[in-house]
Request: fold
Amino acid sequence: MQGEGTGVIELNDGKVTGGDTVLGYTGSYVVDGDKFTALIATERHTPGHPSVFGIGLDDVNLTLTGKSTPTTASCTGDAKQAPGLAFEAVLVRMAD
Reply:
């Protein structure tokens, strides 16, 4: 494992927005039953620790596929800027 982190995302009408302490996330998603695909771009907004992709890889374009339930989702994918490096995420729904 290269690294790990936590952040917050909002999913609304096919759009993804969010971030963590150093990166912002934007993108889109499509849902088909309990499966989904997402395209997410990250961009550094604050100096600090390296991203989960490593030193110097702040602005990446992720392609993700996954499966969801009403309370959780998990996905895997990759970033074209980090070939060969697998990305995994587990999303947990926050209270409305």
About this structure: Strands lie at 8-12, 15-19, 23-32, 35-44, 61-68, 72-79, 86-92.
